[in-house]
């Protein structure tokens, strides 16, 4: 059983809900279900009893939980101790970001990190909107602070750093421009500017093709850069969704950012290649968590 599968099992054993487990780990419910089924096949017994109303641990599942939980904590503690056991942190760490506020935090973290580890240099660059994890896979980046969801088997998802309310970006003359808020169902009233390149699950979360009630959302032009998205919205080619905070960083007189009253947040977190985790990467993550007040 791989470490990620153990994490999925222990989280489900705590939450007893596939949806909450998937949300907590930033993976799809199908990924959780597949991992549990794989474990049950390997063990030869059911770990959970599933009904339409509830999920409960079987006796075998309870035993596995009780046996695995302390061992899992020991593994995590051992990794942490090994990472800090007198090893010097040198070389270069390449860190990416998406939104401007993510970039601001990375710059602050880089300054704090250099003060702690003067032998290590931080290189910072923007992550392309259309290529969400490609620079991690090509090892042009070691770590990035970008939007969830990231449901890729070779990518490790770290903690959420920002959870931002969502807004609809509309032209200044749009009927919604004067409203205090919009709803998710309002997405059906204008074409939506979309992004070419990201995986379907990412697009479905940020730029859905249907409203919660099932009404189709018309797809407008597709582009690969955020400034192009804003230009297309300004030209009346459609609307788009983003974090409310974007209006403070990408303000334009021809655009209005209207908050949603019922949409899920836009979550930004840390991601890295599972096979590329290093001492300095973990130290930089710790620096970011220290800056944001996360004690986890």
TrEMBL record:
UniProt entry keywords in alphabetical sequence: DNA-binding, Transcription, Transcription regulation
Record-given protein name: LysR family transcriptional regulator
Family statement: Belongs to the LysR transcriptional regulatory family.
Pfam families named in the record: HTH_1, LysR_substrate
GO molecular function, one term: DNA-binding transcription factor activity
Presence of keyword DNA-binding: yes
Domain HTH lysR-type: 1-58
UniProt superkingdom: Bacteria
GO CC, any one term: protein-DNA complex
